[in-house]
């Protein structure tokens, strides 16, 4: 390096001068020269310590990831840096996900990062993400866990730019946030089943808990906004674990969790196949949608109830991750995850006219994080005594989903 060779040439001359003049030099000369030498070395080999942090160049790009590396095969490793934000630095965290505010005393769950086997997953970079989605509209389509995912992204991006809260419906299910400096819109489109669905009611107009789904129709809550969307993250799942009769128009195909006479039994993973096949077919054939629409399937996020279900005293009190040898790779969640991915792969084999599809495969990753849920620390005054082992604390392991999301979108560009 030129600067290095110039420095060493200069230092040799300095040493010869010191040796020849040592005897007649001032007693203050040697200390002065030593100090000068130290600062010369420091300034040559280090960035100036007097430069303001605000002047440092924050990268607007992420390191390249090996396209052959499976981001979703790996393990959780300790990370002393922890989250990029805190439960108090992000003002948009909903109370039900602010686990520390509601009394969670352990912090160990915050100090882990996902490490893929064979490559590195870059840390989330809010500046680079906003640069990448400038001028775009992104919608999280799904249930309350999809909302949970969006809220994590909102906290991460708020570190770079404060968004405007521009829309909230009466039930606070559908939200729209706008980042004016980047002309980026972030929204949620709440839906139970993705396809059109309705709960049956009794003679008193009280819900019976039995739902009818029609694969021939999409839920208008998200489908009507799809033509204006650039990036959609599709992920509904948890409402499917209840009695559901599945129809395709006037044809009844069968029922999940039903013991009705003369009714074909459908397993949950088969039900997911039917629904997601219809959803991806609708997206791929959407004539009014943008030609370069990106659709990301986020696979099912597992719950971690132990010693009961949500309404029978089940809880999730663990404080550290599982290893791969501690999770059930044959679980219902893994079967459903496979069903979801198969339907996406079926669409991508056809002619979908420029639209792009990708998978955010979080199921196995999150099976290893029984420590990341609110449990009893969710402050729900109407459901005291019940634990939340479905959603995820903010900050928490769900933040890794946005590291995945950033990597996946970059690969599609």
Give the SSE map.
Blueprint: H1 2-21, H2 29-45, E1 74-78, E2 112-116, H3 126-132, E3 137-142, H4 144-157, E4 164-168, E5 175-179, E6 184-190, E7 195-201, E8 207-218, H5 220-223, E9 231-234, E10 244-248, E11 251-256, H6 268-284, E12 294-298, H7 332-348, E13 356-360, H8 363-367, H9 400-412
Parallel strand pairs: 3-6, 3-9, 8-10, 9-12, 12-13
Antiparallel strand pairs: 1-2, 4-5, 5-6, 7-8, 10-11
Shape: globular
| Average predicted local confidence, pLDDT | 87
What is the radius of gyration computed over CA atoms, rounded to a whole number of angstroms?
Answer: 27 Å
Structural class: alpha/beta
H and E order: HHEEHEHEEEEEHEEEHEHEHH
Model regions low in confidence, pLDDT < 50 over at least 5 residues: 1-58
Domain Trichome birefringence-like N-terminal: 68-120
Domain Trichome birefringence-like C-terminal: 121-407
Organism: Brassica carinata (Ethiopian mustard)
Pfam family, one: PMR5N
């Amino acid at each position: 390096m030129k600067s290095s060779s110039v420095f060493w040439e200069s230092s040799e001359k300095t040493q010869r001068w010191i040796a020849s003049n040592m005897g007649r030099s001032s007693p203050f000369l040697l200390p002065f020269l030593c100090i000068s030498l130290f600062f010369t070395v420091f300034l040559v080999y280090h960035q100036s310590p007097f430069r303001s942090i605000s002047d440092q160049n924050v990268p607007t790009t992420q390191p390249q990831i090996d396209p052959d590396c499976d981001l979703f095969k790996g393990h959780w490793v300790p990370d002393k840096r922890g989250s990029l934000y805190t439960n108090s630095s992000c003002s948009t965290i909903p109370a039900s996900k602010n686990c520390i505010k509601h009394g969670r005393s352990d912090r160990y769950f915050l100090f882990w990062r996902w490490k893929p086997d064979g490559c590195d997953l870059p840390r989330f970079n809010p500046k680079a993400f906003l640069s990448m989605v400038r001028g775009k509209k992104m919608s999280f389509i799904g249930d309350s866990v999809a909302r949970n995912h969006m809220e994590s992204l909102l906290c991460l991006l708020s570190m770079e730019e404060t968004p405007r809260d521009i829309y909230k419906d009466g039930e606070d299910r559908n939200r729209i946030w706008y980042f004016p400096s980047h002309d980026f819109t972030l929204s949620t489109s709440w839906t139970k089943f993705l396809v059109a669905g309705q709960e049956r009611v009794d003679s008193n107009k009280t819900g019976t808990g039995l739902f009818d789904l029609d694969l021939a129709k999409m839920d208008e809550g998200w489908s009507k906004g799809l033509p204006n969307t650039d990036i959609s993250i599709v992920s509904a799942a948890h409402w499917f674990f209840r009695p559901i009769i599945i129809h395709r128009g006037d044809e009844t195909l069968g029922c999940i969790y039903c013991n009705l006479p003369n009714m074909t039994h459908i397993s949950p993973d088969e039900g997911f196949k039917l629904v997601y096949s219809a959803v991806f077919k609708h997206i791929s054939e959407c004539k009014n949608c943008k030609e370069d629409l990106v659709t990301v399937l986020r696979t099912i996020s597992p719950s971690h109830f132990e010693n009961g279900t949500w309404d029978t005293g089940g809880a999730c009190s663990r404080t550290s991750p599982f290893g791969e040898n501690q999770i059930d790779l044959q679980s219902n969640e893994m079967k459903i995850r496979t069903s979801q991915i198969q339907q996406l792969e079926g669409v991508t084999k056809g002619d979908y006219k420029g639209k792009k599809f990708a998978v955010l495969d979080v199921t196995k990753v999150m099976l290893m994080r029984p420590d990341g849920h609110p449990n009893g620390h969710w402050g729900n005054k109407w459901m005291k005594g019940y634990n939340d082992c479905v959603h995820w604390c903010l900050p928490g392991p769900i933040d890794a989903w946005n590291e995945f999301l950033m990597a996946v979108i970059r690969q599609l560009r």
